[in-house]
Amino acid sequence: MEYGNIETVELDELAKRFDLPHLVTLDTVRNYGNTIRTKLLCEICGKTSIPMVMFEELIKIDNEFQGLALSSEEVFKQAHTHIPFDSDPRVYFLIEDGEIVYIGQTCCICARIATHAGAVDGVKKFDKVTTISVKRELLKITETVNIRKYKPRLNRDIMSNENYLKEVLKSSSLADF
To answer: How high is the pLDDT of residue 64?
Structure first.
């Protein structure tokens, strides 16, 4: 579809990508797009579509975020019974009997793992830990994509699809349109 010189994509395509209802997706794009220009483009294209260039940008960011998820081979290959002694921002995986049971983030890995090891009634039992050093600005999203991928049984809070789309929108360069 085209509006003037603006090529568009039906909003249903974006809704499918992020597994959201159509109207939630439109409101989210409008509310979390980086600029007034983004909001105007949404208004110009109407309630059923968004500009193709916006769609492509969001898919590109989603793919980059998904690339932050470790493969299960990487998680288990890097699993150790000891942890690094540093203050690098890290995402960590607690493993018990070959199963990822918890994923978290921290800037003080030793102290954080110690709190899990001392969990009351063995709530967070684990025998190995995998940690990956991450840029501070990517800490939350790296944790999120890995939790969404592995769905560890001890992680209670998994970012909703709508909140994940909000993170993608906040990270976009939609201001360049």
So the answer is: 92
Domain locations in the chain? 2-67+164-176, 72-133
Calculate Rg over the CA atoms of the chain.
19
Distance CA 86, CA 110 (A): 8
- Tokens 């294209």 belong to residue: 45
Residue 96: Cβ-neighbour burial (10 angstroms; 0-12, 13-18, 19+)? middle
Q: Tell me the pairing of strands 2-3 and 6-10.
A: antiparallel
Neighbouring C-beta atoms of residue 176, cutoff 10 Å: 10
Phi and psi at 92, nearest 5°, equal -125, 155
Neighbours of 1 (CB within 10 A): 12
Q: Mean pLDDT for each consecutive 10-residue tract of the chain (177 residues)?
A: 66 82 69 61 65 84 91 86 79 93 91 77 77 91 92 85 82 58
Predicted TM-score (pTM) of this structure: 0.75
